[in-house]
Amino acid sequence: MERKMSEIANADKVKSLLGLIINPNNGKTLKEEGRIVEIVADQNELLFKYNRNGITPEQKRTIENSIGVAVSDYYSPEKITVLTVSDNSSDVFAGKKFTNIDDKKLPANDKAGPAQIKTGHGPTGATKKRVAGAKKVIAVSSNKGGVGKSTVAVNLAFALKNLGKKVGLLDADIYGPSMPMLLNKREAKPGATPEKKILPIDAYGIPFISFGLFINEKDPVIWRGPMLGGVLNQFLFDVAWENLDYLIIDLPPGTGDMQLSMVQATDIDGAIVVSTPQDIAVLDTRKGLNMFTQVKIPVLGMVENMSYFVPDDAPTKKYYIFGEGGVKKAAEELNVNLLAEIPLEIALREGSDNGYPYMNEKKYEGRPVWNAYMNLAKNVNQCFNEEDSNKESKGFFKRLFS
Ligand SMILES: Nc1ncnc2c1ncn2[C@@H]1O[C@H](COP(=O)(O)OP(=O)(O)OP(=O)(O)O)[C@@H](O)[C@H]1O
Ligand SMILES: [Mg+2]
């Protein structure tokens, strides 16, 4: 078939623009590094396939954003498909080793066959849908990656469970799903109910679902703008959540259009913004808070993570490694609550790396991190349950919902 001259010229222009995309790992272009596997730039759609060996989810996000920006004169986001191939499946997860997903290890309840993610377009319009099976839905967000958002989401879930609540977890971080690792369920494959609802995987009494559970390491990972909304939509509305007091969503870091499209279609009851003392830029945080205000989601408050370090051998000392009170100051300036200050602790990171969530290990009871998470859970709980709150906190949270 003969193509028009202008079309060919545009395809060449697009290819040269894509040749400038930089690997944030080392500042070289993907082209220079020989990572580009395929580019199909036709009139309607752009397909870009590259090798992501050694590229972290955070860097992958940067690359994909720059692809969108680079070709924005030619393609709208829904026309762009980015495929990645990788020799090393560990790249799919947040920098962790990954064992093969084995289809033979499907759970016994998988009579209706493994669940599949439907592709397709995300929700449009502003009608907010309630998640069936969950009384309250809480989104955990952050303005940037690597601040401990997933750690907070997971450990808040267990802290609420320690208060006697029934909690579910939803890993909506499509670029760097980390819950299968944090919960030691890398090999689990969600089954489906006879009604074709996705069955969440149980991890230490917490049902959870993650995009990572659907990734077969042999398959390239597909990213496509509007599909993201679609995937979250399916996770929220097609999962057989049952009798949850709380569903906690780990959102992808950042506050861009993608996060916005993820939250605007869902009736989310409250958002938590996680930051570290040194990563707090008031301007960025304000942008993040505006995102929630725009879609009428109340912000429960901020969580400062990695606030200080308490050495095991000097438990009365606090070392403010990243500076003291950074998030508190920002929260005051922005007139939002500070829900918790969570210290640094080696056992918290080790627990995450090994799939044993800290707040599920009773042996840590009474330690500073444990206490901080229990306080966070109580504060979150008080936001929603007047009867649980004491006089003081009633006033504290009132303005959030008035
Ligand atoms: N309070 C803490 N003490 C010690 N280590 C922590 C603490 N909070 C988080 N970490 C560690 O910091 C790293 C980053 O945390 P995490 O993966 O939760 O961040 P994230 O914001 O979800 O990152 P991403 O943007 O990649 O999704 C992990 O190794 C985690 O175990
Ligand atoms: Mg994360």
Shape: globular
Bound molecules: adenosine-5'-triphosphate, magnesium ion
| Structural class by sheet pairing and helices | alpha/beta
The number of distinct helices, counting runs of at least 4 residues, comes to 11
Whole-number tally of structural domains: 2
**Major beta sheet summary:** 8 strands, mixed
CATH topology of the largest domain: Rossmann fold
CATH class of the largest domain: Alpha Beta
In the CATH hierarchy, the architecture of the largest domain is 3-Layer(aba) Sandwich
**Major beta sheet, strand line-up:** 6-7-5-9-4-10-11-12
- Sequence stretches where pLDDT stays below 50 over 5 or more residues: 89-114, 116-125, 387-402
**Radius of gyration based on Cα positions:** 22 Å
Distance between the termini: 63 Å
Give the strand content: 15-25%
Count of β-strands? 12
* Average pLDDT figure: 80
Secondary-structure element sequence?
HEEHEEHEHEEEHEHEHEHEHHH
Description:
Helices cover 31% and strands 19% of the residues. The protein has 402 residues and is α/β, with parallel strands linked by helices. The strands form 2 sheets. Strands 6-7-5-9-4-10-11-12 form an 8-stranded mixed β-sheet, sandwiched between helices. It has a 4-stranded mixed β-sheet with strand order 1-2-3-8. Strand 2, helix 2 and strand 3 form a beta-alpha-beta unit. It starts with a helix and ends with a helix. Bound molecules: adenosine-5'-triphosphate (ATP) and magnesium ion. The site of adenosine-5'-triphosphate (ATP) has 23 residues, from helix 2, helix 3, strand 11, strand 12 and helix 9.
